[in-house]
Structures are given as structure tokens and as C-alpha cells.
Fold this protein.
Amino acid sequence: MMTRNLKVFLAASVGSVSVWWGINALNEALTDVFFAYEMRTNPAVLAATAAQLELEQQIQEAYPLAQNALKFTQKRRLLCMREKTER
């Protein structure tokens, strides 16, 4: 049987984990929004970021042992930037 203290502890743990997941999701969404805003308003940053991501992709293709080194968010941003420039 679980004691009252253990029940409170487990409830607080589950509650705090769900709150932090929400905060992390909000952080990710806000980062994407601010990044997209900066890309739209500052073409120099857009060009520099696109050049950097293209260079990183070329390096990944040149060195196949490091294929997984490129972060998921960078790949996603590269795809988003390509979609925005195609529009």
C-alpha cells in the first residue's frame, strides 16, 4: 500500500514533468517563431544562415562517418528556409 506522502510525491512528480514538457514545447515554438521573424526582416542573416547550413550539409556529404552529427533542428531549419525561398 502506498502511503499518503508517496502519493503526494508521485502526483507532484507527474505534474512537474508535464509542466516542464509544456515549457520545453513552448520554448521550441517561440524559438522557431523568432527565428522565422528574423529571417524575414533581416536578409543578411538569412543569407548567412543559408550559406552556413549549405556548407554544413556539404561537409556531411564529404565525410560520411559524420552523417549523424548535424542536429535535427538544423536540418529542419534548412528545409524551412528552402521552402520559404521557393515561395
Observations:
- The longest helix spans residues 4-41.
- The helical segments are 4-41, 43-62, 72-86.
- The chain is about 85% helix and 0% strand.
- The chain has a mean pLDDT of 81.
